[in-house]
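Not sure how to ask, but would you mind making up any protein sequence you like and the tokens describing how it folds?
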Amino acid sequence: MSPIVSVSIVVPKPGKFDEFVAIQREQYRRLRGKVSGLLGSRLYRSVDGRSAILLAMFETPEDQQRFAESADLLDHIARVRGLVERTGPGLYESAYEYGIV
């Protein structure tokens, strides 16, 4: 089974992008090595600076679900909720891979 990737498109409120990124980095540092099955994550900023794509890769769908229901994530979502206009989550698995992404 290939890893599962959680993809969230995030649109921070105007002027809140840097604060959103700072809180995301803080969350990463706090949870680094503590989330079972989490292989890594990346945050991509759009060129126009108005949105971001947050990727988190998990070993299994069960690992992702466990984290999605965890107090750590729910507390984090509560912290960033006031900074974000909207988000659009989804789960994906690899259809093909080429090179380093």
Notes: The chain has three helices and four strands. Strands lie at 4-12, 38-45, 52-58, 84-93. The chain has a mean pLDDT of 89. The chain has one domain: 4-92.
